Amino acid sequence: MLSREAERIYWMARYIERAENTARLVNAYMNEILDLPRGVEPGWGQLLYITASEERFATRYQNVDERNTIKFLLADDFNPSSILSCVTAARENVRTTRDRLPTEAWENVNELYLYAKDNVQKGIGRRERFYFLKTIIFRCQQITGLLAGTMSHDVAYSFARVGRNLERSDMSTRIVDSAVALLMPRKEEPAPFDNILWVNVLKSLSAYQMYRLHVRRPVEGEAVVRYLLQDTQFPRAVTHTMIEVVSCLNDLPRNDRPLRSVARLQRRIKDAEIGDMDLRTLHAFIDELQLGLAALHESIQTNWFSFEAAQAQSQTAA
Fold first, then answer.
1. How many domains does the chain have?
2. Domain range for residue 191?
3. Which of 39, 159, 242, 251 has the greatest number of beta carbons closer than 10 A?
4. Which of 229, 216, 220, 219 has the alpha carbon at shortest distance from 190?
């Protein structure tokens, strides 16, 4: 398999997952601030902070208000992580690797792109935002399921799984951090509404029912964070995504460097004592995890997608 094909499939999966997770993040944040008492909401700029896009946003907009922030995250083609930008990029990656993917994959990704392009303006307004985000999430999940059920589980599919799980773990940490960041400015003891935040975090990741089934504890911050970071069985828990990444990397050639990167990340997550962390320490720990995920991506990029990797592949084939 050519390096450029592997890279496009990897990024196709990441972009689909990123579009779904951006929709999840916006939806979770909306629910969080609507459920909080007056005076607790930190402002829409918090979403820009979570997605690390404050500087890019500032070059386009003067006011950090609801409409500008939502437009930036959903529809702005200047933002490479907006929902519309992600589905556009995913469509292009599928278009250029159609011989490697099921025909239905192209059809579904194209339909997702057309839906997003035609309806994204409705998502900017509050009235139809929930339906737009819900539809984006559903269509992205549909594509993920289609690939799992109709694509040969070969090297190409391994790259798709690596991309999807790496993107999923990154956004899971960001959604957890959205609640941590909301609570950090308050220094007093936990308030009665804190558990509302954590319920919404679980629901944003479709984790609420599984949490209640397996954790069997009231919804509270420490248990939710431990579940979403360290659970080995829930698909959007960071530990589970790393297990999936290792499984895929083991099927790929020249995998030593990426496997070492993910092993370091796994040890850090496993050894973390969540119960001993206050909110600021937890926030710093999540930042550390995100840096580890970025390092893992760089390792994958260098190992299989760079010019040097392409040369090595060519020499091996010869």
1. 1
2. 3-317
3. 159
4. 220
Structure tokens at 171: 């956004």
User: Tokens 């999430």, residue?
Assistant: 137
DSSP state of 71: H
By 3-state DSSP, what share of the chain in percent is helix, strand and coil, each rounded to 5? 75, 0, 25
Hey, what are 2's tokens? 């050519």
Q: DSSP for 159-206? A: HHHHHHHHHHHHHHHHHHHHHHHHHTT--SSPPTTHHHHHHHHHHHTT
What does pLDDT average to over the chain?
Answer: 90
Contact 123, 129 (CB under 8 A): yes
Listed as own residue / partner, the contacts of 224-228 with beta carbons closer than 8 Å and 24 or more positions apart are: 224/176, 224/198, 225/176, 225/274, 225/282, 226/274, 226/275, 228/172, 228/176, 228/201, 228/202
DSSP letters of 266-279? HHHHHH--GGG--H
pLDDT, average across residues 7-24: 96
The CB density around residue 86, as the number of other CB atoms within 10 Å, is 28
Average pLDDT over residues 234-238: 97
Note the pLDDT of residue 192.
Answer: 61
User: Does pTM surpass 0.85?
Assistant: yes
- Encode pLDDT of 155-173 as tens digits: 999 999 999 999 999 989 9
